[in-house]
Predict the structure.
Amino acid sequence: MNLQGVCLVGELYGWAVGDGGMILATTDGGATWHPQGDTDKDLRAVCFADTRRGWTAGRDGIILRTTDGGATWRESETGTDRNLYGISFDTEGSCGWAVGDSGTILATRDGGANWRPQQSDGTHFTRCFTLDATTAWIIGKGGAVRATRDGGETWVTQYSGTGVDLRGIHAVSPDLCWAVGRGGTVLCSRDGGATWTAGDSGTETDLYGLWAAPDGREMRACGDDGVILTSADGGLGWSPRGSGTAKDVVSLAFTPDLGHGWAVGDGGLILATRDGGTIWEPQLNGIHKDLVAMHGHGAVRWAVGRDGILIVTEDGGASWREKDTGTRETLWGVHLLDDERHGWVVGEGGTVLVTEDAGASWQERSAPVDVALLGVGFEAGGGRGWVVGEGGTVLVTEDAGASWQERSAPVDVALLGVGFEAGGGRGWVVGEGGTVLVTEDAGASWQERSAPVDVTLTAVHAGRNGTACVVGRGGTVLTTTDGGESWLRRASGTEVSLWGVAFVAMEEEGWAVGDDGTILATDDGGATWTTRHSGITDNLKAV
């Protein structure tokens, strides 16, 4: 997942956008980032007028706008399905432009509520910059530069003196403007674009992002292979700065005093600087996709989720790194043996993957179904395992997942969670409609147990000697001590959906997690639960 645009409002507020409809927001200077929006279309640029009003543009002509800091994003009618790559507004947040494929130029005079096309040729435009309600520039392929001084009623073609694609543009006055592009191209105009002069960037690397301080002296640029450049003389001379990454850095932005800056790029990269761009530190390691399941032992944990993502920690969560599973399918379940080398993941379309080298490589295993597989569990030795999924699917393996056999279940609803007691004889499966299944023969046969609820049950922890704890929607917590013959509904103190539950070895101390940052704790085997403050409002999916 690549990030394509970034915008700052003061020292604390910022937004980054990118592939797959990703919108990330921070309100604490980048200490934490939270996803926003619900589109799946690639977003290419973002612009905010203040901490509440903002806009983003991207694939298929999409423009989203917010008036509440991104709590809600609404799609604007653009009248085009052409890809948009740039969006920019004046400081008042009233007048703006969006540009893209096939010469697309869209203009708004009402804060992005309505957009209308403006006259253009067929040039592929990449970015735009709005100085005020009347003055703006557009750049594009083949060294294209267009400028307006009348609010876009007319766009004047300016001769840039280059034929390379231009990718970044910034202006500080109606006269002073810069552009960057492929091959390390840096251009400057001091007469509003009537003439452009090429500068020496000191690199032949493609440049994408450009920013200039209000006085027009301090400048910053970024590009391929982690390149970040600084200039203190209005772009006459440039110096490289260490970014600490080899990933492409696509966009960057600063506060006017250079006190804070962020840069974003490929692989979900977000870098931060507090010294004007001399030293850069990663704020996020690129892991922004939804995570839905987690498993591990001791200080080692594996988590999986959207687009085939797998992230691993070996130091108790102090740091995480991503490993390539070789799939883009959403992964719904993960199981790691205590040898920390053998593991399995399952997901959409009957996906079953296995690793024998701690996730360095993965092999696909054939499953007898093509439905979404939602949960997975293995006995301690890793020989025998179980998978559950949509349509009442229950799969069993006796050879470490090399082959899988389907077992008959007495239901046809989605099954979300699976858990087995140590030894692998008695096991539990839970799912939609209050479904609880139990097996006493390692999954060869399954019997349905009556639960006192009809809501979706999402996760199960298998204890010892017929004890179990189940959680689900509506704050549901159920416990049994007799193999599921009877169930007690426990007071959780919440009505949000709970998605994960786990206990320590002695089975007295445990936790459950759910929507809105909910964390519940118990120290009496699940009989009573108390809320723990998480400090976040994100939905928590596993523990």
